Amino acid sequence: MSDEEWERFLRESVQGVAGAPVEPSARAREVERRLRERPGRPEGWRTYSPARPRRATGWYVAGLVAAVAVLAVALFPQQIVGWFGDDGQDGTPLAAETKSPREAPGAGPGLRPTLAEPFRGSPAARWADGAAGITVPPAKATGWMDAAQVERALRQSRDFLVAAGLDSRVLRGERPTKAIALLNPHQKDVQEYLRTALSSTAPSPKTDPLLLFSRFRPEQARLVGDVVKTRGRLTYREGERGAVEVTADVTFVYPVTPAGDSGRDAEVVRTIARRKVVMSWDDPDKVITEPGTMSLVSYALDMTNGGCSAPTGYFVPSFGTAKEQPADRDRQVDPYDRSKPIGTGDGTKAPGTDCATATRS
After folding, report:
1. Which of 5, 79, 128, 227 is 20 to 30 A distant from 273 in Cα terms?
2. Nearest-5° angle of CA 10, CA 15, CA 19?
3. CA-CA distance, 90 to 125, in Å (whole number)?
4. How far apart are CA 151 and CA 280, in angstroms?
5. pLDDT tens per residue across span 122-175
């Protein structure tokens, strides 16, 4: 090879020759590979393609339905329960009663109460125990009282209901000392009622102690367990002469069994008492009263399985079909229906004066 040819070879090796094959770059090889795998128009480097909608799978649909159901129960618990029937046996406590219900609680299965489950088959199974079932509203200044005084009056009003309808000694027939201590000693008609009602062996409908106090004869019936179910509420307003007038509307459910029957299969029945008591916390500058006491405006009672004959001063639950007491078969009442008003008066609505047949207990 001449010197000229060698020099041309070296120059062409460095500068390249037109038409000579060129090795593709790494980026070019990557683009070529993508085009082979996904034919069609390539996307730009900064373009956005929304995700393609996927068909809902069974798990997705089930999850969505469950989420909607949980939300519905959280927002509308009472309505949802009503759709499926309220048998009172699911153990879920009812929310506190803050206003008059629009209808009676739903009917559950016809299960009989037992010693182990005395509220079995009853709407009361979901009610609160004792004083917890009596709703007390928020207090605000009313009449002659400021908010703190109204709060105290509401608390003492509930104390009266507890002492009159839940005290274990009173339920056994003892004198309701704590409840009486909250009554104005200067209210002559009420004091006369108390003297007559608690001393007479044959009270009249107007002097029956059951109008205010729950009592059983220990030799006739005994309570099953320590729990009495309650449901109701207090309301208040300004009354006469600036007084704070508190109204209590509460239903008490007492499970009882015959006093002399201690066997495992002893019969259990329920006595149900609904009381409406109107209490007046009077201005001491306008009414003669004592601190911490109130006057009674009215009191009334509706009861089921507590006796339908002449008043005795005690609940007389009926045990067994042979001892079933007479009632008006043409008129039926639901003792759990709190949507209907209870009678009011000065003690004129009492046992034996207006008997009917209870649809359930």
Report:
1. 79
2. 110
3. 9
4. 14
5. 999 999 999 999 999 999 999 999 999 999 999 999 999 999 999 999 999 999
